[in-house]
UniProtKB/TrEMBL annotation:
The keyword Nucleotide-binding applies. InterPro entries: Kinase-like_dom_sf, Prot_kinase_dom, Ser/Thr_kinase_AS. GO terms for molecular function: protein serine/threonine kinase activity. Residues 17-270 form the Protein kinase domain. CDD domains: STKc_PknB_like. The keyword Transferase applies. This is Serine/threonine protein kinase. It comes from Occultella gossypii.
Amino acid sequence: MSLRDQRVRDLPVLADFEVVRSIGDGNHGQFFLARPPARLGIADEYVAVKVFAGQVTEDAYRRGARELRAFAAVDSPYLATVYDAVLDDRFFYAMEYFPLGSLASPERPLERDRLLTVLEHAALAIDALHEAGLAHGDVKPANVMITETGGKVSDLGLARVFAAGAALTGMAPETSVEFVDPELLLGEPPSRATDIWGLGATAHRVLAGVGLYGDLPENQPLLAIRTVLKADGPTLSERLSPSEADVVRRCLAPLGERYETAQAVAQAIAGLRA
């Protein structure tokens, strides 16, 4: 058997989607590039399909599908389009494919002004979710996708839906801990404020190129969480300009001092670009 045949054989069967190849891992699942079935009636040649690891009950599927429908109903040009959600052997959903990658793994390096545009669009997307009564719950560079004209936000934090009642410490991989408001780690639910914290942490990572807590332990999420909770607080990098640091600092500030809306964050980021 050729290597190509082996790769094809290793691809999952996902209902009536034609899976082409793996395009990476996400929280609690994998992403695949696929050709959509004709029943969806979409013009896109490809879609991105996220397949969640482990078994999902029908009740959890209904909760997840309900969240995705609510996400898809929000009217914003800066939110990824969700096309379908399926419970087969596993739960998966299909959304638009972004060949330019994400802020975590861009297809090519981005200049500062382009980064700021993508971040501004991400903040506008989060604001649209908030105005619709939703919290994203997983704001981080990997969920901020790059488009030809800016950016879009994807991938709701559905792990909390599929594991209702589970502690976040059991759901947050070490690659995400840096972007999680410590209040979430202490048991608070996702909210406007925690998403704004995530926007600040995301902006810090992509503009400074380093994390708020230095190098966190790899492959040890509980140790990474412990490191964050024991820290005196996030430390801003000197690589940020004073104006960039001001925006990030206010995103991470205590409640009452933090930006009240993601719209305000978007305006502050636009000011950096100007």
